[in-house]
Amino acid sequence: MLGLFRIVVGLLFACHGAATLFGVLGGPHGAAPHFAAWPGWWAAVIRLTGGALVLCGLGTRVAAVLCSGSMTYAYFDVHQAHAALPIENGGEPAAMFCWSFLLIAALGPGRWALASLVPVRRRPDAGGSGAGV
């Protein structure tokens, strides 16, 4: 179930980033942020790439922490000034994404992650025998 949750959250977040960057999927028509403009362009890039990484299950924990942080910033910078509660200030999506990515970062990618297909190289023990001192 966690793998499916990760896939859905990553897909929705990546679509949100694509909509902002490219004006697709009902995004801002003709109002895409200028290249490297802070914070709009960077937020959209984090949404697109972070969402895609979480969706695929590659670097999931790091990408999820970055995505959660970006939504924390979005909530407090954009929404919090208007009202205290997310229901009052339109910050529900930012809050939901923030906590969803934090959950994914804490629990890991779950099943169906591409990272599980990549073999993990382990470094040999420095002591050689593996016995503790």
From TrEMBL:
**Where's it mainly located?**
membrane
Write out the annotated subcellular location.
Cell membrane
**Matching InterPro entries:** DoxX, DoxX-like_oxidoreductase
Keyword entries, A-Z: Cell membrane, Membrane, Transmembrane, Transmembrane helix
GO cellular component labels: plasma membrane
Transmembrane segment boundaries? none
Membrane topology qualifier: Multi-pass membrane protein
- Family membership: Belongs to the DoxX family.
**Could you tell me what this protein is called?**
DoxX family protein
Q: Which organism is it from?
A: Streptomyces lucensis JCM 4490
Q: What is the lineage of its organism?
A: Bacteria, Bacillati, Actinomycetota, Actinomycetes, Kitasatosporales
